[in-house]
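Bench notes, bay 3.
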Amino acid sequence: MMEWVQTGGGQMEKVAQSLGQLAEAFLLSKRVSGCTEHTLSIYRLWLSRFISAVDAPEPLAAHRFVAVWQERGLKPSSLHRGVRALRTFFRWCVATGSLLEDPLRGLAIRLPKTLPVVPTEDELKAVLACCPAKTLLGKRNRALILVMADSGLRASEVLRLVVEDWTPAQRSLLVRGGKGHKDRVTFVTPTTARALREYLGSHPVVAVEDFLFADMQNRPLKRRHLIQILHRLSAKAGLPSHRRLYPHALRHFAATSWLRNGVGIDEVRRLLGHESLSTTLRYSALVASDLQQAHKKAAAIERMRLT
């Protein structure tokens, strides 16, 4: 791996640069370009794994690295995320002249086309019932879950909300710097607005610049805290481990509920902040299964018992 540097005499010459140095430079460039901490953590994790396992970024070694993780039983979605992170790094290396080619070129990880796991209304009700109505934490957790299930916000988006992003008169939330660094506005129903009002009304000190969802010391919640809250409440509600709530499941709940109630696919895309309509179309298959069940119950031909 080489890079161009200027010598004392003004001449340009190439010097060797370690893979670790390149990784640090890459992470710095991504931070400067506005990558989220969550995305940076994924880059950092997979670069660390690669550097510790591979001596040089050569195609055979890179492909073997991916095969090893595949043999370890890593979920296809996680492996796909890792390969995508590494490929972004290698393409950056090629663009900056540090590598001649992408060692992962030609490698494709096929993802199984699974449908999103969506909580049922009864499961969501059971979890909400486990939020104590008279405590600040109970009110916060109830409002937090309702906002996510009602607005379809990503975990990173809901945790970045500050008090001034909430407009009670319009029941709207301003999402700043969503995926792709795009702002958008999303909305909630009167039930969620009421939960937010009760939560903020119980908060001892609320300033417009405070995070909307914070801990008892008014520090912003982290992603791991959000997952712990959802898993703890799911267990308390008696949900089996494979049905417990997680942040993206609430986003799935919002999307499918909109489609089932007649919201157009492009409107759902905009509410969710999807760049591509193909991402939103995943939810249409879930709604199609609902239609199949409804057709089966209501079909007149079947009731006629024709022979």
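Next record in the batch:
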Amino acid sequence: MRCLIIHNPASGPHSDEIFTFIHALSTAGDEIVLRFIGPELEREDAVADARSFDRIVVSGGDGTVANVLDLLRDCGVPILVFPSGTANLYFQNIGNAPDAAALAHACRAGVTAKVDMGELFWMDETGETRRHGFINIAGSGFDATIMQKAAPAKNDLGEIAYLLSALSTPEPQVAHFTIEHDGRVDEIDGISCMVGNTACIQNEINLFPDCRMDDGLLDIAVVKPTTLVGLLPTVAAAVLDPVGKGLGRPQFKTFQAKQAKITCKPSLGMQFDGEVIPNNSGVFGARVLPRCLDIIVDEFSNLHRG
């Protein structure tokens, strides 16, 4: 088996566990190629020959995984996501067993599920239209503020950095969102507009109760105007009903769509998969890229069809 491993050594507190995985995976006759992405090796160069391998492993946090998977769309090679980052939300949504030996076994077995990605469009500070694939959630508003404030400390503090960031914003700014989606237009005031490709966030809480990674749809949620304290009913509902099928998500207005254009006035910044991006226009677009990734799954994943 020829296996390409793309690893970000600066991704987070679990970075070194990739070596335990390699030890568990390797057997006589294998060719294991490990490439460290960073200042000396750009991700585009790291995946230039990816299609010549039997397996690809992407090791890093959500930002790293999103960046690399965006380059591997429709490559046709089974891809294993290895959780080396801070939150590892995409890995949690896949649902594989997290043990390095179990992931090595799944990698060799090579059972895959075809899953979607989201694609985000926005205008940068020079007026140029930019695009990027996303795997979890993109959005504008309170979520972008949390990511921006947490960025300097997330490698040192882990997920606590996100909590401290949220607590430092007791009264999130309200904006007016115009959402054009699949031929419809909705106008809503809120503190955040999120577009999701996956559903689960920290503590296995399902943010978008009807979301699946393979349904060919994006899930859109606007959080209605409130304070941090005012979000407690939604937090309580999420704790008591993580799946979200019983109590739902109070203070959320939700949609499903294949594509959407979202205008936020005033602009509240943007993020995708935890990465803050410069966008002062307050306008962004998103669309689903259906079944463009062959993600390796094990029997614990809800994507497993065996």
